[in-house]
Please model this.
Amino acid sequence: MRYEVLLVCLAVVLVDVMGQEFPKEVTFHREEWWKNLMRGTEEEGKSEQEFRYGGPEGRSCRCRRGRSGLVSCWGLDCREFPKDLTPHDTSLDFGPFNVTRLTRDDLSSLKHVQVLTIRNGPLRDVDVGAFRSMIQLKNLSISFTHVQALHPQAFQGLEKLEEMFLIKNRIRKISKVTESMRAEVLPNLFRLHLGGNDIGRVWPDDFAALKMGSLRDLQLPSSNLSHIHPRAFVPFGKLGRLQLRENVIPSANLLEIVANLPESLYGFDISSIPLNTQEITNILFALSRTNVRELWLSKTTIPTLWKGFLPKWDVLERLELKQVGMLYVEDGALDGTVHLKHLTLSENKLTSIPMGILAPSLTTLDLSRNSGGKRIYSYFHIGELTFRNMSTLESLDLSRNKVLKIEKNAFMGLSSLQRLNLEESELEELSPGVFDPLSALVSLDLSRNHLVKAFPKDSSGISITFPGSLKVLKLSSCGIQSVTEENFSNLKKLTFLDLSHNKLFTLPKTAFRDMENLKVLNLSHNGLIGWHEGLLTTNAQLLYLSLRENHVTTVTREMIQDVSIGVEHLDLQGNPFACTCDLKDFAAWFLGPKSDSVKGKESLICVSPQEWEGVSLLKYAAVSLDICPSSLLQLSSSSISSHFNCFSILFIIILAFHVFPF
Model:
């Protein structure tokens, strides 16, 4: 009886205590912190990477120091180059700007810069020795300026320069700039881009100054070229690639150029040149007698690829026929190209995979953006056993076609396929086991499809599975509402998984159990509220985790443990954090050194309760240890006073038990 009395009294005390609100002293303390925070004058979002130079702040050049050593400077008040770059600033993007002349002193402080871009400004002249201090420069671009000519010694000192871009300037005669690129001045120059200048004609001596040079890549696109001297490219003894695309060169002139191509040339781009089918046939025949093994013929007119269109061409390895209006391919169309490895037929009007293009020698096939073209709405058919003789194919792009459904045996025969792209293909149905034949598959992109049936919410549907060889799996924007352990079973080699922009609200704790090599996991833009069981306990290699734009209101202890193992980049932006004492554990972790992985800390804000709405999570975390009691049994002095009588009675009863035995 005496013990029952004791328990009743204890129960009364505990019930009364648990029913109490936070002590008034604590509530008042929180309100004081709130007032102090609202008075703060700290500037939010101010970038520490921005700086100015060259005069008063209102009239100066703005700069931003980004990642990987890149510094960008711009502004109409930019009348000089920055002088205080560090040795870590290896790339400078300068423009728009307001400099008309480069002098010997302008670039004297840029000794460590390896990549320099000067663009969008009134630059006209470059003095002799202007670049003499830039001994590390490897890539130089002077584009969208008023430059018409360059002094023969303009690039003196640039012995390490490898790439030169003079795009969209006012150059009308090539020899006016090539004199400055002689081998004794630029001994390592291998790429020259002169596109976008109104050149019109190429004369026989335009490239004479580069005769003894190392140039391997020459690009002259969009230069309004209407005539090129047949022997203009003879000086290039090492030239490997020549780009003449987007010009108006007559077919007769092209035939003359082909007849005089350097023997070293292996890549030839004549895309977007107005040629009829017969003219293209003649040029192909002429090219088949050269050493050209890579040909770009995009944006021409080839509605039908018939047998005999391509001549016997033993050395051809790459053929790009993008946007040529192709509707039909005849069987045997590629019979003369027995060594063809790379074929691009994207953005045409094909409605299926023609048997005539399935050359056994192919390693790369691009059929993206077909489906009959923009004006003809037609589904893209992938028949069973289509690829049965394509055992050497390594990359297949079928993205942005209206595929709708893929049968089980569609990929039978693709034993060497490593990359498969089915992005935005209007897929709704994948037959069970459809990917089973792809034993070598490394990368699979199924983004932007409607794959609800492939990931059923219950056991009534048949879940899709993936090859164990996968390293990259993209499933963003697929309408996925649930995933199971079966979906991702045996993916031990997977390093990258994208499940963003789906409709996931919960995740089973075994969803990623087999992914022991997972490094990147993107769960952004779902409806996840978090998890209370270890979800990533087996993913010790995880470096990047994105939970951006979900419904996370609080970060549980289990979530903290999951990301504390080795995650270097944690994205929690865009979540509606509830800044209550339920967030206390996360707040303590958030202020510690392990939270350095959280990117964009300053942008995380409280959404509720009302008194904390809009306040930085960093600020809340700093005060949460003070405003949240360590135990629900913590009492204020007034609370203790209110319970004094009950404790007194309890003490008297216990004392009576010892003094007066019943």
